[in-house]
Amino acid sequence: MFFILGAGHKSNEEYQLETISHCGHCNNDSKWMIGKVTHKASLFFVPLVPYKTEFITYCPICKNGHMISKGDFEWKLLESNN
Ligand SMILES: [Zn+2]
Fold this sequence. Notes:
- By secondary structure, the protein is mainly β.
- It has one domain (5-81).
- The chain has 1 helix and 4 strands; from the N terminus they run ββββα.
- The chain has one helix at 70-81, and strands at residues 5-22, 29-43, 46-58, 65-68.
- It has a 4-stranded antiparallel β-sheet with strand order 1-2-3-4, covered by helices on one side.
- It starts with a strand and ends with a helix.
- Bound molecules: zinc ion.
- Residues 23, 25-26, 28, 59, 61-62, 64 line the site of zinc ion.
- Zinc ion is lined by residues 23, 25-26, 28, 59, 61-62, 64.
């Protein structure tokens, strides 16, 4: 058997927050984005198994941001839906 394994697949979910945050990088006030990035391992170029999930928040203008915890992500998501 011959397998081709890969790990380069990513799927993104992104949401815009309702609250305004200040960005220390570009000095703008804007509604920041939160994102969930799922990394998937692939077999024969078909994405199969999610092996890592990252949660991020970032400035929509300059894309400066940082990682957040899953709890933070869910809380912010809930907050932006209200
Ligand atoms: Zn910025």
